[in-house]
Write a structure and sequence with these properties.
Blueprint lengths: L5 E12 L2 E12 L3 E5 L6 H9 L4 E8 L2 E2 L5 H8 E4 L11 H5 L12 H7 L1 H5 L10 H13 L5 E5 L7 H16 L3 E5 L3 H7 L2 E6 L2 E7 L7 H8 L2
Parallel strand pairs: 3-8, 3-9, 6-7, 7-8
Antiparallel strand pairs: 1-2, 1-4, 4-5, 9-10
The structure holds adenosine-5'-diphosphate and magnesium ion.
Keywords: Amino-acid transport, ATP-binding, Nucleotide-binding, Transport
GO molecular function, one term: branched-chain amino acid transmembrane transporter activity
Protein name: ABC-type branched-chain amino acid transport systems, ATPase component
């Protein structure tokens, strides 16, 4: 079998917030069509890695190639137009806008995105809640909306930062179903997760992050065998 194409290749990535040096040479690969997680304790730089990939961190150095195109030096707009979409931990739902209005807010950046109908087929709950204001949504509905609205953009790669945080177990399961469905549809997904039990149900491989560096890669099929090691990394 042919090696899978590496869609995103991160090499020796450094990032700073002002004087503070946060990423110390992150390196990892995301093969096309896979769900890949970044696992690690709080504050190790997982969110900063996503923000750096999207070009929304002030100062970054190293290499981040998307489909072979070097993105260091490109604006966040240009990076998004290559086909990357970011769903931040804060979810970024506009509370004064309705579900429908939130849904059509991100611009379509390239052809190939899902139609509104296709998005609503994946998220029937959002169709029911169409005219509700963002503030009236539950946490789970807000997370669904945050994921749903980036599917229209035409992005091939989705960066999801802690999509299950603070959600009830039944909603977490539903988010898992959605991630598996998106994978089947051919999306490539980089996922930050605190819940490694959940991560194991959706991902193909896991990168362990410590102090702004990737210190290990664990294929999902070896996760159970490496559980003690992973727990010691995560301090749980
Ligand atoms: N806007 C910011 N300004 C300064 N420091 C920040 C900022 N955002 C995050 N940091 C610091 O960078 C480090 C990594 O943060 P982050 O990437 O959010 O970690 P994680 O997502 O793994 O919890 C932490 O020490 C955090 O305090
Ligand atoms: Mg974070």
């Amino acid at each position: 079998m042919a090696e899978p194409e590496i869609l995103l290749s991160v090499r020796d990535l450094h990032a700073h917030y002002g004087e503070s040096h946060v990423l110390h040479g992150m390196s990892f690969d995301v093969p096309r069509g896979e769900v890949v997680t970044l696992l690690g304790r709080n504050g190790v730089g997982k969110t900063t890695t996503m923000r750096s990939i999207m070009g929304i961190v002030g100062k970054r150095a190293g290499s981040v190639k998307y489909q072979g195109t070097e993105t260091i030096g490109l604006s966040s707009n240009r990076i998004a137009r290559l086909g990357l979409a970011f769903c931040p931990e804060e979810r970024g739902i506009f509370s004064s806008l309705s579900v429908k209005e939130n849904m059509v807010l991100p611009p379509v950046i390239k052809p190939g995105g899902l139609s509104l109908d296709e998005v609503y087929q994946l998220f029937p709950r959002l169709l029911e809640r169409g005219s509700s204001q963002g503030t009236k949504l539950s946490g789970g509905e807000q997370q669904m909306l945050a994921i749903a609205r980036i599917l229209r953009t035409g992005a091939d790669m989705l960066l999801l930062d802690e999509p299950t945080e603070g959600l009830a177990p039944v909603i977490v399961q539903h988010i898992g179903d959605i991630i598996r469905t998106l994978r089947e549809k051919g999306f490539t997904i980089l996922l930050v997760e605190q819940n490694f039990h959940f991560a194991a149900t959706v991902a193909d491989r896991h990168y362990v992050v410590e102090h702004g560096q990737v210190i290990d890669m664990i294929p999902n099929e070896s996760l159970a065998a490496n559980m003690d090691k992973l727990k010691s990394y995560l301090g749980v």
